Amino acid sequence: MLPVKACIFDLDGVIVDTAKYHYLAWRRLANELGFDFSEEDNERLKGVSRMDSLNILLEIGGVQLDEARKEELAKKKNEWYVELIAHMDDKEILAGTTQFLTELQKVGVKIALGSASKNAKTILKRIGLMEMFDVIIDGTDISKAKPDPEVFLLGAEALKVEPSACVVFEDAVSGVEAALSAGMRVVGVGSKETLYKANDVVSSLAEMTLDRLEK
Ligand code: G6P
Ligand code: MG
User: Fold this and answer.
1) Which domains occur in the chain, in start order?
2) Measured from the CB, is residue 55 less than 6 Å from ligand 1?
3) What is the dihedral of CA 44, 50, 74, 66, to 10 degrees?
4) What confidence category does residue 1 fall into, taking pLDDT thresholds of 50, 70 and 90?
């Protein structure tokens, strides 16, 4: 394994807890369609693209719709989500994030974002972390959702770093799988039981150090 030259971060669930806003917007949509949507159901949507999330939601509600109507509903959900994230600020950056990014910068490890979200740049701007990233790959750049490795491979390519010198930080099972298929090492952010495929697991970036990264 090469020494670490780059770190690629997922956004939702690693840098900020936007799952709660996605949940509120999806639940509002479910309620409008006449069914309930629990927080447990919401776990299934982590790391999943907007359209795939809608399909899971409709399956839970036992609702079948044509593509045009689905597009309309995905748009509606996103409008509610955008309203919710418009109020975000730097207080929502998860513990340890700014400190770890600063340490990486100091030692010259490159930093990229690898997110499925089309709202990633809006969120980074709101929380004031945009400038910390050398490269941003988001939902507007990719054609294949995680667990496909595309998002992370594009990140490594843009940074001009070989995949085996990259470490990915991910909270979703599909994201851990994507990183492994990209030939990268991966640190799971969350629970060991869920993210057991990852090379290492931390409960938040507050547990990360440069030493731990090299191991
Ligand atoms: C991330 C989140 C998912 C979300 C996806 C697309 O992967 O974990 O919950 O559905 O991004 O986000 P978007 O903001 O484009 O709807
Ligand atoms: Mg995530």
Assistant:
1) 6-16+91-214 (3.40.50.1000), 19-85 (1.10.150.240)
2) no
3) -80
4) low
